[in-house]
Amino acid sequence: MARFGGPDQTSLYRARIVSGEPQEHFSNPRYSRQVSSIKKAIAWVLALKPVRVFRHFADRRGFLLSGGLSYQSLFAVFAAIWVGFAAFGLILKGNPALGGAFFDTIARSVPGLLAWRGAEGVIDPDQLTQVEILGWTGAIAAVGLLLTALGWLSSTRDAVRALFDLPGEQVNFLLLKLKDLGLAIGFGAALLLSSALSVFSTQALDITLGWFGIREDSMIAAATGRAIGLALMLLLDTVVLGTLYRVLSGLTIPIRRLLVGSVLGAVVLGVLKVLGGALLGGAGRNPLLASFAIIIGLLIWFNLVCAAILLGASWIAVGMADAGIAADPKVAAARREAERVALARKEAELAAIAARQRGWFSRILRRDRSRDGGPR
Predict the structure, then answer these.
(1) Is the entire prediction scored with pTM above 0.85?
(2) Which of 44-48, 86-90, 311-315, 365-369 has the lowest mean pLDDT?
(3) Residue 15: which domain range?
(4) 365 and 276 in one domain?
(5) Mean pLDDT of the chain
(6) Which is nearest to 195 in space by CA: 76, 113, 84, 83?
(7) Which residues contact 237 (CB under 8 A, 6 or more apart)?
(8) How many domains does the chain divide into?
(9) Do 37 and 142 share a domain, yes or no?
């Protein structure tokens, strides 16, 4: 017992024996240094911003939120495609080059959605060009599908605000739906603009390569066209994500932090789009899923996309929390006022308790003095 220096050391020895720790390590300085180094390495890893962003995402039920959004997005994207072609079908049918670029944009954005350029898909583009909104049935269907598409925007707003530890946006319901409708129209216009830029850039590239005597079917032309397409897609995704984080969610985010989070999210989305064919192919190779492989592949892909969107929001949220910036000043002011009121109420309760205690001691002193015959 003397070796361990008393009963406290003996208890420590017994606890270590029960835990199964090797006895030769108890007083080994080298072992203590190794444990300390491991603890420091773990603390350093946990302090890295990507790790803290992922933990923030997981603690705020990010996986549950992205799963719900992915399930809803599967229906919303079909509704948006139908309503969009019903509204802009005449423009696309009147310009085959623009229509082809538009189909290319959608096929790159959502792999497996369109049966386009030899790839398998759920929707036949020829059927989309025949969509009409005329008549009562078409109008009613358009309204129902439009509400389905707007529902995804509303759910995305609530999910992003949840990652910032904020409640739902306190705005009139009708105004929120009007904002969602405006954003939906804006996203559709952005797709058209991206398609038009793709057509313009392709034509400009063909002219430029012609000046240098490079054929359109050469490897250089294909690589350059692919790079331009990816750059346009990255720009479109960055604008869309920035709009989702700031305008749709009603948050006050500094431009620099918004740009960084949107670009990171757009890069992740770009990687997913490049790997989209591999995801669908993996689902198709499973014999149990082959009959509906495309639908399962879309669900998996939408789940990853929604997780990437929310991870970008988590990156912004963690950075703003580190800098002490409020994403919603009104909510922050209301919380400070509530904390002030709660603190004032607590101080009043403590003061009342102290007053009662002073009165109690005073009564005891008066009683004791009265028994002793008064003050001496």
Answers:
(1) no
(2) 365-369
(3) 2-43
(4) no
(5) 79
(6) 84
(7) 265, 266, 269, 270
(8) 3
(9) no
